Amino acid sequence: MSVTFSLHSSLAADTIPVAMLDLCEVRLMNDANFPWLVLVPRTPDAIEIVDLEPETRHRLMDEIAMASAALRSVTGAEKLNVAALGNQVAQLHVHVIARFRDDEAWPGPVWGAVPRKAYDKDARVDLIEKLSDAFQGR
User: HIT domain: which residues (predicted)?
Assistant: First the structure.
């Protein structure tokens, strides 16, 4: 009996689809305070990076690098934070967060620094379009 991939309900509720890569769904965290991508490998039951087969793990690293480059090119980020925490959502997912020396959380972590602020529709559509173009250009 094979297990199929399904996106965790919290990730689905908190993020917006951006792109489908070979391994990962790329999603935008709906928090306008910080441009923030979440990569979710479409691998059933994966919780930790070490749960992936070596070839899949290498593909994940390549896709993290691709997402990082796309996010930096679109936002002009001064720093990128990349993390796979999974303390609240066990499903393997990787955060790629654009950081700026003048953002409200700098130099600390973004989690809990300020209340979440959802993107307004125009800003969300514009950012997703730019990110989608950046992924297609790679």
Answer: 37-106
